[in-house]
């Protein structure tokens, strides 16, 4: 029996992670669509989404059926812990100014320039070639973009879904995020640079780390007080840790050298 | 065909290497230590419940400090 709290955290974690990754994928799909033609870019994106969906079913279902739950939870917990801690680290470094923020506009401009060069090589200087029919480059670029960004989502869906035996629910949350980002992307026909990616990434990192610690403990035989209710407590703990570390890291930013000094 | 399989296996291995180790091997090590410790102290509920999250937070601090921007020349 699952508590409503763990269900909510599961849904939020999967939806948030999928949103972040799909926003990044959308940038590449839009760049491919604008510079090479929409038809192939959309086909590439749809094909990748289909392959990712098949992966969830092919890997996730046997995991639930054949692997003992405790062993599954330790492995899944460890995976989520690595992923969650690395997302949190990146988010803290970004929000404290130690790492440049993820810039969708910059990535979009770079991808369009790259694809336009490919077009110029094949005959149309400067602008690339917008193909009315099928274009292999647009298909491959969009497929790779969605597939690579989506792989982490697949891992999160399988991990969170399998460990709680709710693969369908986790897959549904990921699909909902994909649909929301795709619809918004189609409506505005451009990359979504206003989405607060780092904030979502921080929230998801906190949830993945909390789930990771919880399941590693559960799988190893640690009895959490209140069972599933320990998850929101862990979320609160890692939120406090993240805020404290962000403040600490801001205080550790190097002071810029004064103008005119030899280092400047 | 063999070349295709080798390329696929290499790509699969590279994905997992980047995913688990990448440029933050300390986080993979931290996870290994946390998992091992979870089994060692699983009988002691209080220690496990307090120690595991604290350990994760400590390793996160170490890794974050390792990734900070440093002043030029330091």
Mean pLDDT of chain B: 87
Total helical segments of chain A: 8
Query: Nearest-angstrom radius of gyration of chain B?
Result: 18 Å
The oligomeric state of the chains shown is: heterodimer
Return the string of H and E elements of chain A: HHHHHHHH
SS-based structural class of chain B?
Answer: mainly alpha
**Unreliable segments of chain A (pLDDT under 50, ≥5 consecutive)?**
123-127
Distance between the termini of chain A: 61 Å
Strand content of chain A: under 5%
Report low-confidence residues of chain B grouped into runs of 5 or more: none
Q: Biggest β-sheet of chain B, characterized? A: none
Q: Find the count of extended strands of chain A (DSSP E, 2+ residues).
A: 0
What sort of overall outline of chain A do the alpha carbons produce when their principal axes are compared? flat
Number of DSSP strand runs of chain B: 0
What is the global morphology of chain B? flat
Q: What is shown here, in short?
A:
The complex is a heterodimer of chains A (264) and B (74). Chain A has 264 residues and is mainly α. Chain A has eight helices and no strands.
Key terms:
heterodimer; A: 264 residues; mainly alpha; 77% helix; flat; B: 74 residues
Task: Walk me through this protein's architecture.
The complex is a heterodimer of chains A (264) and B (74). Chain A has helices spanning 4-36, 38-66, 69-95, 104-121, 136-163, 167-188, 197-220, 230-251. With 264 residues, chain A is mainly alpha-helical. Chain A is 77% helix and 0% strand. Chain A is flat and about 60 Å long. Helix content of chain B is 77%, strand content 0%. The termini of chain B are far apart. The radius of gyration of chain B is 18 Å and the shape is flat. Chain A binds chain B through residues 74, 77-78, 81-83, 85-86, 88-89, 92-93, 97-99, 151-152, 155, 209, 212-213, 216-217, 219-225, 230, 234, 237-238, 241, 245, 249, 252-255, 257, 263, and chain B through 15, 19-20, 22, 24, 27-28, 30-32, 34-35, 38-39, 41-43, 45, 48-49, 52-53, 56-57, 59-61, 63-65, 67-74.
């Amino acid at each position: 029996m699952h508590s409503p709290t763990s269900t909510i955290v599961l849904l939020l974690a999967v939806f948030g992670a999928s949103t972040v990754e799909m926003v990044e994928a959308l940038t590449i799909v839009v760049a491919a669509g604008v510079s090479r033609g929409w038809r192939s870019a959309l086909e590439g994106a749809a094909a990748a989404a289909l392959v990712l969906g098949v992966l969830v079913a092919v890997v996730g279902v046997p995991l639930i059926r054949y692997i003992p739950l405790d062993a599954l939870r330790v492995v899944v917990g460890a995976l989520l812990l690595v992923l969650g801690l690395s997302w949190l680290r990146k988010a803290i470094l970004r929000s404290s100014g130690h790492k440049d923020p993820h810039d969708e506009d910059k990535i979009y401009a770079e991808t369009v320039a790259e694809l336009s060069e490919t077009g110029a090589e094949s005959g149309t200087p400067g602008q690339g070639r917008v193909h009315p029919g099928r274009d292999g480059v647009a298909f491959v670029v969009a497929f790779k973009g969605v597939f690579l960004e989506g792989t982490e989502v697949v891992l999160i869906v399988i991990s969170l879904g399998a460990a709680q035996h709710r693969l369908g629910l986790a897959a549904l949350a990921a699909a909902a995020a994909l649909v929301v980002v795709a619809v918004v992307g189609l409506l505005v026909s451009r990359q979504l640079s206003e989405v607060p990616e780092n904030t979502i990434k921080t929230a998801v990192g906190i949830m993945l780390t909390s789930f990771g610690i919880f399941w590693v403990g559960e799988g190893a035989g640690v009895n959490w007080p209140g069972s599933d209710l320990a998850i929101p407590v862990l979320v609160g703990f890692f939120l406090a840790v993240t805020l404290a570390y962000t403040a600490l890291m801001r205080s550790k930013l190097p002071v810029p050298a004064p103008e005119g000094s030899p280092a400047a | 065909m063999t070349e295709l399989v080798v390329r696929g296996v290499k790509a699969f291995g590279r994905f997992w290497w980047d995913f688990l180790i990448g440029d933050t091997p300390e986080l993979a090590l931290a996870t290994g230590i946390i998992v091992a410790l979870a089994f060692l102290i699983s009988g002691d509920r209080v220690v496990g419940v307090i120690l595991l999250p604290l350990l994760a937070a400590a390793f996160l601090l170490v890794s974050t400090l390792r990734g900070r921007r440093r002043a030029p020349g330091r």
